[in-house]
Amino acid sequence: MSDLVRLSLSLEKPLLDRLEKLVRRSGYTNRSEFVRDMIRERLVEHEWDEDREVVGTITLVYDHHVSGLSEKLTDEQHHHHRVILTTTHVHLDRAMCVEMILVKGRASEITELADRLRQHKGVLHSGLSASTTGARIR
Ligand code: NI
User: Fold this and answer.
1) Residue 49 has pLDDT above 90, yes or no
2) Percent of the chain, pLDDT > 90?
3) N or C: which end of the chain has fewer CB within 10 A?
4) What is the Å distance from ligand 1's center to 62 Cα?
5) Inter-axis angle of helices 13-25 and 31-49, to 10 degrees?
6) How far is CA 105 from CA 2, 37, 113, in A?
7) What are phi and psi of 104, to 5 degrees?
8) How far is the CA of 27 from the centre of ligand 1 (A)?
9) With contact defined as beta carbons under 8 Å apart, do 104 and 131 qualify?
10) Using CA atoms, how far apart are residues 5 and 13, in angstroms rounded to an integer?
């Protein structure tokens, strides 16, 4: 871990009160740790905005009875194989499937993949969880 630097900052009292409440409600016992995590969150957002190499998960819920859908989703994933680390498929019931695709690559390519997968008829829900390789948030 790098050396710690202390800093002081000025905040309006109502804003400080809100911060303290948020720190407690989020289960933090330490305000510094909360602020560190908040900064890291903003840095991760920035990595995505700047189209850096990032990590994420795409979650798809779909009905595999829809004609040709499984093949189309597999085709899309083959097309973007360079950014896919692993895919987990679970059969939720007789019709519904959930697929979790762990990805690492340029933010724009991951977003494009998520957008393309979402648009297929029969995909009922799609989520993209944006994370980081961790390299630029230490
Ligand atoms: Ni399935």
Assistant:
1) yes
2) 96
3) N
4) 8
5) 90
6) 27, 23, 11
7) -145, 125
8) 37
9) no
10) 24
DSSP state, residue 4: P
Rounded distance, CA 131 to CA 103, Å?
Answer: 10
For 34: left if phi > 0, alpha if psi spans -120 to 50, otherwise beta; the answer is alpha
Q: Quick one: three-class SS letters along 36-63? A: HHHHHHHHHHHHHHCCCEEEEEEEEEEE
User: If you measure from the C-alpha of residue 97 to the centroid of ligand 1, how many angstroms do you get, rounded to a whole number?
Assistant: 4
CA of 98 to the centre of ligand 1 (A): 7
Cα 55 to middle of ligand 1, angstroms? 24
Kindly tell me the burial class for residue 54, based on how many C-beta atoms sit within 10 Å of its own C-beta (0-12, 13-18, 19 or more).
Answer: buried
| Å from CA of 111 to ligand 1 middle | 23
Ligand 1 centroid from CA 94, angstroms: 8
Average pLDDT, the chain: 96
Determine the distance separating the centroid of ligand 1 and the alpha carbon of 91, expressed in angstroms.
4
